[in-house]
Specification:
- The complex is a heterodimer of chains A (259) and B (203).
- Chain A is an alpha/beta fold and 259 residues long.
- Chain A has two domains: 65 residues, no CATH class; 157 residues, Rossmann fold.
- Chain A is 61% helix and 10% strand.
- Chain A has a six-stranded parallel β-sheet, with helices on both faces.
- In chain A, helix 8 links the parallel strand 4 and strand 5.
- Chain B has two domains: 82 residues, no CATH class; 73 residues, no CATH class.
- Classes of the chains: A alpha/beta (259), B mainly alpha (203).
- Chains A and B meet through helix 1, helix 4, helix 5, strand 3 and helix 7 of A and helix 1, helix 2, helix 4 and helix 7 of B.
Chain lengths: 259, 203
């Protein structure tokens, strides 16, 4: 019935489900404290700067991955940020442009942005054709198209959330050169240093997944982050036990993980 | 529906239940079909945006828009009529897109160099650590210096194997747990940001 080698993973998944659900219920009674994420707190400032300079805000989810890849959660997380940025842009009358790499993201992003404009009572201000622009499905064709966009439009702010690959440095440097204030976030470890060096604000790995909850301030969503932290504590306990057991010559924890 | 589909896919991964594999394969095939349709949307969007540039004679843009549409049509016609595995399509691909992609990829080196120049400044203690570590890695990768000072190789190997790997693993674990929490919120319908849903009042 159970697939061998995945039993422990299933048990861990169930434990994290329980942690998250219990934390979500508890959060309805008392909201847990949330570490400040400077990058997300800076979004109004970034959009405000675009409004002052009468320039646009550029949003990208990177030039890689597909909807069947393990990177999909990063795209889902990015859409929550796109929705919030679109709301801010609609509110302040700033044009936000999402340049598309994955064609599948086009209808999703269009709906997210349209909903944001409707929420702000400015449905007429949203023009999908000029704000959700499909560039290319090829990584470097997309990269050069976005760089060209940066050079021509010189957006006041550039927001990059999602699974980035080699284009991370191309984007970060180009937008830096044209004077855009930049927020970047990815869960792809190899690209984080590039963003850290060039961008003004950075969301590291799990922070992008928490973005939706952080921006919504919904107690249940915030509670799930507490559940995630309990999962992290569980992982740390397992690591320490594994270390001690291995030093003592016992393969118990290693065998447990292989179950 | 979303939650049901997610539960089926997860069950297929963890449990051996007769029939679920076929359902999961069907779900994945639907995904492929939807992606193909979405690609059509992308092509339509490209046509819409660039024909507008051409008709409005957007300064500095419209000649490139013509070129883009010509290439889009050419690739489609050659790929469909002569097959994309044929020598004509392969020649077209290798002579244009592949060469240009390689050029853009190569330019990453220059961007990394300028980023490196800015990063290697000891503005504070953290930047100083980054600078020292960066210099060790940089010098180790210069063959002559690595030969002259083998200690650089030892130091770089340790930096890569111990602090960098442990930090990467920490990031990976945090990201995995974050993705799981996002999945839980999505499956129980709390995280709807990516759907662009509106309440009745907002409509």
């Amino acid at each position: 019935m159970l697939v061998t080698g995945r039993i422990f993973a299933l048990g861990t998944l169930i434990a994290i489900w329980i942690f998250a659900l219990v934390s979500m219920m508890m959060a309805k009674k008392k909201l847990p404290s949330f570490r400040k994420l400077a990058g997300l707190d800076a979004l109004p400032e970034m959009v405000g700067r675009a409004a002052e300079t009468n320039k646009s805000v550029h949003f990208t989810t990177g030039g890689g991955g597909s909807l069947t890849d393990p990177v999909l959660p990063q795209l889902i997380a990015a859409m929550a940020v796109l929705g919030h940025v679109s709301e801010l842009c609609a509110k302040y009358g700033v044009k936000v442009v999402y340049t598309v790499f994955l064609a599948e993201m086009m209808p999703i992003a269009t709906e997210v942005m349209r909903a944001a404009y409707i929420k702000e009572g400015k449905a007429d201000a949203f023009n999908a054709e000029s704000q959700v622009i499909y560039m290319s499905g090829d990584q470097f064709a997309y990269s050069s198209a976005v760089q060209g966009y940066a050079e021509r439009e010189r957006p006041a702010a550039n927001i990059m959330i999602g699974p980035f690959y080699a284009e991370s440095q191309l984007f970060a440097e180009t937008f830096f050169r044209v004077g855009s204030i930049q927020l970047a976030g990815t869960a792809r470890g190899y690209q984080i240093p590039f963003f850290a060096v060039v961008c003004d604000y950075l969301l590291i790995a799990e922070e992008i997944y928490a973005a939706g909850a952080y921006l919504s301030k919904d107690p249940a969503q915030v509670g799930s982050i507490r559940g995630q932290d309990l999962g992290k504590a569980l992982a740390l306990i397992l690591m320490i036990l594994g270390l001690l057991a291995t030093v003592a010559g016992s393969p118990f924890i290693v065998n447990l993980l292989k179950m | 529906m979303l939650s049901i589909a997610a539960v089926i896919v997860m069950a297929d991964y963890f449990l051996k239940i007769p029939g679920t594999s076929a359902v999961v394969t069907d779900l994945q095939n639907w995904g492929v079909i939807l992606s193909a349709f979405a690609l059509g949307f992308g092509a339509v969007n490209l046509f819409y945006v660039h024909t507008r540039h051409i008709s409005r004679r957007t300064p500095g843009q419209w000649p490139y828009s013509i070129w883009l549409l010509v290439m889009l049509v050419l690739f489609t016609v050659v790929g469909v009529s002569l097959r994309y595995t044929g020598p004509e399509y392969q020649w077209l691909y290798n002579s244009t897109l592949f060469a240009l992609s390689a050029t853009i990829y190569s330019s990453t080196g220059f961007y990394i160099a300028s980023g490196c120049y800015r990063a290697l400044k000891a503005r504070n203690s953290e930047a100083a650590v980054l600078m020292i570590v960066g210099l060790i890695v940089l010098l180790k990768n210069a063959p002559a210096l690595a030969v002259a000072a083998p200690v650089l190789v030892t130091m770089e190997n340790w930096l890569s194997a111990v602090p960098t790997t442990s930090a990467q693993r920490g990031i990976m674990m945090g990201a995995s747990l974050g993705a799981m929490a996002l999945g839980i919120r999505t499956m129980i319908g709390r995280e709807t940001g990516f759907l662009g849903r509106l309440t009745e009042a907002e409509r």
